[in-house]
Design goal:
This protein has 423 residues and is an alpha+beta fold. The protein is built from 18 helices and 16 strands. It has a seven-stranded mixed beta sheet with strand order 3-4-5-2-1-8-9. It has a three-stranded antiparallel beta sheet with strand order 14-15-16, with no helix packed on it. It has a two-stranded antiparallel sheet with strand order 6-7. The relative contact order is 0.05.
Length: 423
């Protein structure tokens, strides 16, 4: 990809425009980090770039940004510019195209992102900042007081670079990260989440957490629980514990997964039924948070006698025939009971054994209820519900059940009230 990028620089040079590879690519090249994210800066304006290249995506003409598509590769390209004034601590109100690469570099965020590579592949250190890279030091280009205040996103970018690269933050820069942390309140919630996702996905995420706490950024980011959660490799696991579903943007599926994971985390241990109910993915995230070896969960899952209700060797129609009753609501109750008993190894998933079990217990099903929690404690005392027996030729007898105790969601101690014919 680098070779194609240099070809783009040469093509710009053939048309009398200056251009360089800039930003993260030269930095990562020196650090020995693999990357295919290559940015280009040039003296050519977007209009002039459109005249040179056949395939150009116009991304943000207002700020002199386009994407050059060359031989199947995309290169974000910006024109040398000077930023006149910033608006709302985020974007410049006005820019001015310039022809001087040094002046363009002076507008950038951190010194380690100002190295360049020319069309011949030579590394250029125009601002003489190589020592910052060698010393693993993050500092702003120019006075951090102004550089941080003009764009609050730089606060999180600084934390991200310090986390991913394992760099120290220069003392003065660190001071203004905290001083202007309140500006994060007005930063786009999507941009905040993008940066936090990158921090939380880093192998060095614990360093990121320490910096967010040390610099007192959690209040502005609404991450009140950051200090107490268990950091894990899965983003869903981290965001689930932070409990900011109503603040940060998540898809419907992500919200459902986090809700289920919170339910699961209330249990002290994983058994076959929980593994079956919540699935392998959520249970492996649970395991990492709880400090359980993932191999143990994978082994348990591989030994489950059934993975879905469809795996049970009896159908609702067959249950109706076994009991010689017309189909009714009782079938679901019986299937629920069979499902649990197969998972806890009380019966095997064998048709003959299941048939015998149905004949022996078909009219005396223990009804399943949804577990009720108080805090992290599973409780059931005083739970009232409606249930159906399978007497009365399958139509069902409706009665009230007052539950005294449940175990793994199964009523084990209860009494019934007056019964009546179900509607």
């Amino acid at each position: 990809m680098k070779e194609k990028a240099l070809e783009v620089l040469k093509k710009l040079s053939e048309n009398n425009y200056e251009s360089y590879l800039v930003g993260g690519y030269p930095r990562d090249l020196i650090l020995g980090r693999k990357t295919n994210d290559i940015d280009i800066c040039t003296s050519a304006t977007p209009k002039e770039i459109l005249e040179i290249f056949d395939d150009v995506i116009v991304s943000d003409m207002q700020y002199g940004s386009v994407v050059i598509v060359y031989k199947g590769c995309k290169f974000d390209t910006t024109t040398f510019r000077k930023e006149i004034k910033y608006e709302s601590n985020r974007k410049p109100v006005k820019i001015k195209y310039i022809k001087d690469i040094k002046k363009d570099l002076l507008r950038r965020d951190f010194t380690i992102n100002t190295l360049c590579i020319d069309k011949d592949g030579n590394l250029l250190d125009i601002l003489n900042i190589r020592s910052d890279l060698d010393n693993k030091l993050l500092k702003t280009v120019g006075n951090p007081r102004y550089r941080i205040k003009e764009d609050s996103l730089r606060i999180l970018r600084c934390i991200r670079f310090a986390t991913i690269l394992d760099f120290d933050i220069e003392k003065k820069t660190k001071y203004f990260l905290t001083k202007y942390s309140y500006l994060l309140k007005s930063l786009s919630i999507n941009r905040k989440k993008e940066e936090l996702d990158k921090i939380f996905l880093s192998k060095n995420k614990e360093r990121g957490r320490r910096l967010l706490l040390e610099l007192n950024l959690t209040n502005a980011l609404d991450l009140d629980k950051l200090a107490t959660i268990t950091m894990c490799t899965d983003l869903t696991g981290i965001w689930c514990q932070l409990e900011v579903d109503d603040i940060y943007p998540f898809t419907k599926v992500e919200k459902e997964q986090m809700s289920k994971l919170r339910e699961l985390l209330k249990y002290d241990k994983i058994d076959n039924y929980l593994l079956y109910k919540y699935g392998l993915y959520l249970c492996t995230v649970y395991a990492e948070i709880k400090g359980i070896p993932r191999r143990k969960i994978n082994t348990m899952y591989s030994k489950l006698p059934i993975l879905t209700r469809r795996d049970i060797n009896v159908t609702g129609e067959e249950i109706s025939m076994i009991l010689n009753k017309p189909p009714g609501k009782y079938i679901k109750d019986i299937l629920d009971d069979i499902e649990v008993n197969i998972l806890n190894s009380s019966i095997s998933n064998d048709k003959e054994e299941i048939t015998k079990y149905i004949k022996d217990t078909g009219n005396h099903v223990l009804y399943r209820v949804t577990p009720v929690f108080e805090g992290n404690n599973l409780v059931a005392t005083g739970v009232e519900m409606e249930a159906y027996s399978v007497e009365d030729n399958g139509k069902g007898i409706k009665f009230n059940v007052f539950v005294y105790n449940i175990e793994d969601g199964i009523i084990i101690d209860y009494k019934t009230g007056d019964s009546k014919l179900a509607n």
